[in-house]
Structure to design on (1112 residues):
């Protein structure tokens, strides 16, 4: 069926910017507080109160826009978008209409499995606006009331709108993953969908090859010069994960195709519809929309001053961004031979972890080992102890030293994790950790002496091996470990087998 | 330009006002007169003139991102005509 | 001279020398209000207890030789549109009848810091929308010079309070002339500072890009004193100007040398009352006699100012007043009745099988909004909300709102050119003296046209001042308006003081 039509998808992504306070007042943006405990006269919209813009929110928005390679106009302003809703206490949202702070950027996406070619997704615009509150419908006992919680009201959001460049639900999902990677990497948002820090609406329609039954409509510019017909656009809401976005779009593409076959209705013949995704049922459902609700009566907010940004300021921001995930991923894959998966795990952790990894890898001279240690052990400890790299107490140079000494055999492989743990707990280098654990590298002669002794005491092992049961050596390894926990079992096994052979 | 009553009714809905028939009559007449007067703006040549949304035009006014005390919840809700201990109550907003 | 005819500056000298205490002074004013305000209706609420307590605190400070603020112990009346923590702030509207803000307006904080005595809240046109104080939901305010006439508006209560000797000083707000016009009609001095000179934080918004707080007093000196106390940058108001505040009280006494006074050709056209024109021309003559030169100037777009204003102000108002919806504060309709009405409407439509009607039926929430707002707002407020919503709605935005913003710039550019030639502009404040109560009821456009001389200053952000310059044949006050470039308040005050010292118009008072 995929050959019969092309799926056209555009996304609108709302990202909560990582500020301490709200966009226009000093209330905290912390998630999860009791309803209406993080509000003040300004975000409740009480009479006479005025908004004053959070500098950090603007900086984070600018940082994102530059990272998305957007044009940054020299002048931007704030507008009021007017509609009545109880979670919007002023009954207007401060947003940006005709002069957004950024526009015409792009983000490249690629599928590691090669389902689609690397492509450039154009960003139409990204603008800064305030969030609304929440209406809780089911928590009020009885009656028909809804409870309004304004904690979220006034939280800074960046709305990122793509051009309709995506051609499949997988591309949409991949775009969102790549966007999230970028935003978390540059530290502008935690992009936590469960907490609402990242929300997605999708616009979708189908382009169907024109057949003789559907010639281009005369006078309809969208039909002319094309050999395709566009179906009406549907906006999908209520998708709570990237997987849900993918599923909803898959479902909706199929539904649109059926609808087209039944109705042959084209773009422009019906108003844009909104449908909500029901994740449990796996379907989209039509949502009621009132005709007048689309008249938002935007006008410039007289309470807020416009903002000007000079090209020099934009360059300063660009300079501060450093290497972005796409370039970094390429470097980690090409220069350090990491898998795409390992590269993304590292990049997902943000700039500090990547810089740490690069230091470890370069200093240890083994990128693969460095990647394993950082992605498995370092990240695990960070998570378990809820600390940051700065306070971890394991400078990159020390981890690199550990990796080098393991390779040289100075640190016995089986006890490397213990050494790593001790280095962190005691905040010491490899030598001190080894000493504290009583680990000394066992040299070859010691191993040979130990093997000779144990073989002499276990003639049955020798005969078993000679009879072709090489695994009989295993029993000796256990005994050897008891006598010296630092032995390298692999090496010990080799020595035993060698001794048995040479004794022939 | 003349305003129809249907248009005025639409504006009343957008404004979330409910007007009686008598009020609608009066306000339709009033608005028609006022809008008729305001229509003289059309005769002013404004080609190339930048709109002026602020009386005094200043730019880049910011506050620092530091969080401050919020209102105690009882105080925040004190002026609400209908609320419980946790929040504002309104007729169900489902399906709006 | 009776106490209530003395200026604030004189009272302050007496307070400082100990000749009078703040408690005595405050009590005198409270007694006068109690005796006479029933006839004027200037105050919505008088806070006798609170005022006397504040007065006693100032007296105690003086007695203990602790520092006392620049308004040390002077009663100040405040328009009921500035928020005061825990106190009713009604905007003369039913919709805010029970609203008690949990915060102070910055101006209220500054008045407290200056040791003013907040004596009471004055009446206004509902949400400051009007020019006669008649649209107040609560009471009529009468002009102390003729109780059959309005005091002007929207700060009519504040102007009448000062004119009637109920308070030496008062605070008003001016969006399209709401300080200057009632000052002129009540024969007192009133000033609208440069937009952004005084913080708007906590001042309930009518039209945010035009609103400005300002002082009323019996003399230019008093107005300078009150302005100095309330002016200055406020980080909570992003439109407030970060500029130092000159010592207006010191500057006001210095006459301006080589003063160039402009008079506007377009101000003296048809519709200007003969008495008003004569008084204003005489005032220009006074300036000439003081050594100033007179210059005829032109403000070619002045005639579009009212049209421009009545697009921009209602547009902003329609948005600013959207928040009064009965959810988070303010009046809410009776919900039981509302739900019963909804059920009845639905039943009727269902019986009639009117599916279209059912689709269009307002939900409980929309119904609650519409009923609450319609019950809470008076007709003038509804009219302006409707007008503004219309001007901003799809299809009309460019023709009305955007067009008005462009004409606004042309109006400002006219002034910029004019102030290249002159230092101050002088002219009438209103086409005629105060109108009778009810005279223009039912003709809103006629009422709007009275704003012809005042709205330009708001559109352009300029400071303006009105002071008495004569009496009509019927004995009504006539005001002279002076305008200056942005932030030239000191020049404005000095120019006004020159005139005031050369005349005696502010020494006569109405008899009540």
């Amino acid at each position: 069926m995929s050959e019969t039509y092309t799926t056209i998808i555009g996304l609108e992504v709302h990202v909560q910017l990582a500020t301490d306070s709200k966009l226009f007042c000093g209330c905290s943006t912390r998630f999860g507080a009791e309803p209406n405990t993080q509000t003040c006269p300004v975000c409740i919209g009480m009479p006479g109160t005025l908004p004053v813009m959070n500098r950090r929110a603007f900086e984070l928005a600018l940082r994102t826009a530059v990272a998305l390679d957007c044009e940054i106009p020299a002048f931007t302003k704030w507008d009021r978008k007017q509609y009545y809703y109880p979670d919007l206490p002023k009954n207007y949202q401060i947003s940006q209409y005709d002069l957004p702070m950024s526009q015409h950027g792009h983000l490249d996406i690629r599928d590691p499995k090669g389902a689609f070619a690397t492509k450039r997704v154009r960003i139409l615009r990204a603008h800064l606006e305030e969030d609304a509150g929440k209406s809780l419908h089911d928590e009020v006992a009885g009656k028909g009331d809804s409870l309004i919680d304004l904690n979220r009201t006034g939280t800074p959001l960046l709305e990122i709108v793509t051009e309709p460049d995506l051609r499949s639900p997988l591309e949409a999902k991949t775009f969102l993953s790549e966007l999230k990677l970028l935003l978390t990497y540059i530290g502008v948002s935690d992009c936590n969908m469960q907490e609402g820090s990242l929300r997605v609406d999708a616009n979708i329609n189908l382009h169907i090859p024109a057949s003789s039954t559907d010639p281009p409509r005369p006078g309809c510019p969208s039909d002319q010069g094309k050999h395709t017909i566009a179906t009406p656009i549907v906006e999908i809401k209520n998708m709570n994960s990237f997987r849900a976005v993918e599923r909803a779009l898959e479902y909706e593409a199929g539904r649109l195709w059926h609808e087209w076959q039944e109705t042959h209705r084209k773009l422009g013949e019906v108003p844009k519809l909104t449908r909500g995704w029901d994740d449990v049922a796996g379907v989209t459902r039509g949502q009621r929309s009132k005709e007048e609700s689309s008249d938002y009566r935007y006008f410039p907010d007289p309470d807020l001053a416009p903002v000007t940004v000079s090209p020099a300021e934009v360059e300063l921001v660009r300079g501060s961004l450093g290497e972005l995930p796409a370039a970094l991923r390429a470097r980690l894959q090409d220069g350090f031979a990491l898998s795409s998966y390992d590269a993304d795990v590292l990049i997902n952790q943000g700039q500090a972890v990547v810089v740490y990894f690069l230091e470890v890898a370069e200093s240890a001279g083994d990128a693969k080992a460095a990647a394993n240690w950082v992605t498995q052990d370092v990240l695990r400890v960070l998570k378990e102890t809820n600390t940051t790299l700065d306070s971890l107490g394991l400078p990159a140079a020390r981890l690199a030293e550990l990796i080098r000494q393991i390779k040289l055999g100075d640190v016995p492989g089986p006890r490397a994790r213990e050494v790593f743990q001790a280095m962190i707990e005691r905040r010491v280098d490899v030598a001190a950790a080894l000493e504290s654990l009583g680990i000394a590298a066992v040299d070859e002669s010691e191993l040979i002496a130990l093997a000779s002794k144990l073989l002499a005491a276990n003639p049955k092992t020798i005969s078993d091996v000679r009879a072709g049961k090489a695994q009989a050596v295993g029993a000796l390894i256990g005994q050897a470990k008891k006598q010296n926990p630092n032995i390298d079992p692999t090496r010990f096994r080799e020595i035993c087998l060698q001794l048995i052979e040479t004794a022939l | 330009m003349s305003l129809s009553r249907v248009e005025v009714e639409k504006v009343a809905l957008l404004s979330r006002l409910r007007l009686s028939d008598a009020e609608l009559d009066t306000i339709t007449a009033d608005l028609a007169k006022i809008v008729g007067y305001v229509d003289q703006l059309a005769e002013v040549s404004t080609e190339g003139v930048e709109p002026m949304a602020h009386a005094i035009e200043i730019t880049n006014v910011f506050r620092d991102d530091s969080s401050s005390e919020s209102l105690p919840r009882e105080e925040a809700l004190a002026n609400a005509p209908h609320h419980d201990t946790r929040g504002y109550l309104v007729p169900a907003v489902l399906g709006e | 001279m009776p106490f209530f005819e003395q200026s604030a500056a004189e009272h302050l000298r007496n307070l400082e020398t100990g000749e009078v205490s703040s408690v005595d002074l405050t009590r005198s004013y409270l007694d006068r209000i109690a005796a006479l305000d029933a006839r004027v209706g200037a105050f919505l609420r008088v806070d006798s207890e609170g005022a006397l307590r504040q007065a006693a605190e100032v007296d105690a400070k003086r007695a203990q030789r602790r520092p006392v603020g620049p308004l040390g112990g002077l009663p100040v009346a405040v328009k009921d549109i500035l928020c005061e923590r825990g106190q009713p702030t009604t905007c003369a509207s039913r919709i805010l009848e029970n609203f008690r803000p949990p915060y102070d307006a910055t101006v209220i904080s500054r008045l407290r810091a200056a040791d003013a005595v907040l004596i009471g809240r004055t009446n206004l046109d509902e949400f400051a929308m009007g020019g006669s104080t008649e649209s107040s939901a609560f009471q009529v305010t009468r002009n102390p010079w003729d109780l059959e006439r309005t005091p002007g508006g929207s700060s009519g209560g504040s102007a009448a309070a000062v004119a009637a000797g109920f308070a030496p000083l008062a605070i008003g707000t001016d969006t399209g002339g709401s300080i200057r016009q009632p000052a002129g009609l009540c024969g007192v001095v009133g000033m609208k500072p440069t937009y952004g000179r005084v913080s708007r934080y906590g001042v309930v918004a009518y039209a945010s890009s035009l609103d400005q707080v300002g002082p009323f007093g019996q003399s230019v000196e008093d107005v300078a004193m009150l302005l100095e106390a309330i002016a200055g940058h406020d980080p909570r108001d992003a439109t407030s100007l970060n500029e130092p505040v000159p010592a207006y009280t010191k500057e006001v006494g210095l006459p301006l040398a080589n003063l160039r006074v402009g008079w506007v050709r377009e101000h003296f056209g048809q519709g200007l009352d003969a008495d008003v024109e004569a008084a204003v021309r005489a005032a220009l003559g006074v300036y000439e006699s003081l050594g100033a030169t007179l210059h005829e100037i032109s403000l070619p777009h002045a005639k579009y100012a009212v049209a421009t204003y009545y697009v921009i102000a209602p547009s902003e108002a329609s948005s600013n007043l959207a928040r009064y919806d009965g959810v988070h504060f303010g009046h809410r309709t009776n919900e039981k009745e509302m739900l019963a009405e909804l059920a009845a409407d639905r039943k009727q439509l269902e019986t009639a099988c009117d599916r279209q009607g059912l689709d269009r039926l307002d939900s409980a929430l929309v119904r609650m909004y519409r009923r609450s707002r319609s019950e809470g707002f008076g007709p003038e407020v509804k009219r302006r909300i409707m007008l503004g919503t219309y001007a901003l709605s799809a299809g009309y935005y460019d023709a009305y709102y955007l067009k008005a913003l462009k004409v606004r710039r042309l109006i400002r550019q006219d002034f910029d050119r004019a102030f290249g030639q002159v230092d101050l502009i002088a002219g009438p404040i209103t086409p005629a003296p105060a109108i009778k109560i009810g005279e223009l009821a039912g003709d809103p456009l006629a009422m709007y046209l009275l704003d012809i001389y005042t709205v330009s200053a708001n559109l352009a952000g300029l400071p303006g001042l009105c002071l008495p310059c004569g009496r009509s044949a019927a004995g009504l006050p006539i005001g002279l308006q002076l305008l200056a470039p942005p932030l030239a308040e000191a020049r404005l005050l000095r120019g006004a003081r020159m005139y005031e010292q050369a005349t005696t118009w502010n020494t006569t008072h109405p008899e009540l």
Observations:
- The mean pLDDT of chain C is 97.
- The two ends of chain C are 16 Å apart (CA to CA).
- The first strand of chain C starts at residue 43 and ends at 46.
